[in-house]
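Students often ask why inverse folding is considered easier than folding. One informal answer: many sequences map to the same fold, so there is more than one right answer. In these notes we will look at a single instance of the problem. The structure comes first.
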């Protein structure tokens, strides 16, 4: 029998809007016993919690700045005291900066991106993983990485660096769980191309990698999570780019990515969401 969310506790970060809210809606529809929502945006979080409650969900919303380790640890302790460790943890919160590296401000751009995209999933997972292992029940960890974690791209150096980092960390944790005999806790890492959530407003989808719709990404990530799929690349042509980059000489790949596929020009008209709200 496959993994079921029914009767389980689900925690979603960046849950106030976008894909985070869609993940939470899936948990409600499939009968999760408790849906825990983390987001820094208190106003939107309240709206989402109210809507999910009206749809029949049992919701616990917490305003959490996932760039702040102290807040993460305090909020995680409250969750464990009330509900125990979640059975499903979805590390969805993320931010992007689309500019040349030397235009990044070290504090507002570089540190902020690394704190949320790399350190937050590590800190949050670390806050719950021991209990998930010791509980000896089927549990799931989901990390939203990015196709940017597989190829270099101009005007997203820090973002790409953060996603390379989180992809390497997340898939390594998967292997550790398997090799140490903790196969009841499965890690799924999702690497989507650009998603139409507003976070990548202005970005252009490269050839063979059109802009993805949020619901499609959530549906495929959710199904993969339940099946224990280790790595999900969306669209699957991301795998083709990854493979070509691995076998072609650097300059040949640069020509293909820049002149043919359009990867290197995809961020030229990037505008973004226009604020610092996290969550895909």
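Output (designed amino acids):
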């Amino acid at each position: 029998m496959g993994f079921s969310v029914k009767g389980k506790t689900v925690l979603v970060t960046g849950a106030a809007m976008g894909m985070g809210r869609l993940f939470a809606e899936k948990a409600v529809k499939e009968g999760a016993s408790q849906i825990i929502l983390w987001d820094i945006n208190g106003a939107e979080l309240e709206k989402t919690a109210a809507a999910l409650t009206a749809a029949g969900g049992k919701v616990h919303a917490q305003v959490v700045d996932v760039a702040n380790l102290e807040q993460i640890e305090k909020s995680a302790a409250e969750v464990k005291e009330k509900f125990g460790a979640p059975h499903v943890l979805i590390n969805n919160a993320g931010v992007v900066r689309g500019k040349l590296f030397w235009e990044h401000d070290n504090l507002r751009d570089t540190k902020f991106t690394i704190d949320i995209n790399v350190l937050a999933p590590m800190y949050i997972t670390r806050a719950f993983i021991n209990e998930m292992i010791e509980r000896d029940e089927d549990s799931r960890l989901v990390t939203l990485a990015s196709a940017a974690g597989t190829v270099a791209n101009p005007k997203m150096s820090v973002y790409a660096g953060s996603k390379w980092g989180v992809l390497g960390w997340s898939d390594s944790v998967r292997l550790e769980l398997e090799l140490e005999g903790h196969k009841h806790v499965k890690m799924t890492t999702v690497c989507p191309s650009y998603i139409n959530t507003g976070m990548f407003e202005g970005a252009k989808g490269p050839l063979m990698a059109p802009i993805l719709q949020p619901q499609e990404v959530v549906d495929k990530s959710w199904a993969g999570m339940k099946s224990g799929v280790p790595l999900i690349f969306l669209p699957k042509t991301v795998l083709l780019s990854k493979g070509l980059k691995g076998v072609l000489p650097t300059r040949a790949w640069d020509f293909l990515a820049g002149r043919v596929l359009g990867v290197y020009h995809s961020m030229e008209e990037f505008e973004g969401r226009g604020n610092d709200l996290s969550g895909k």
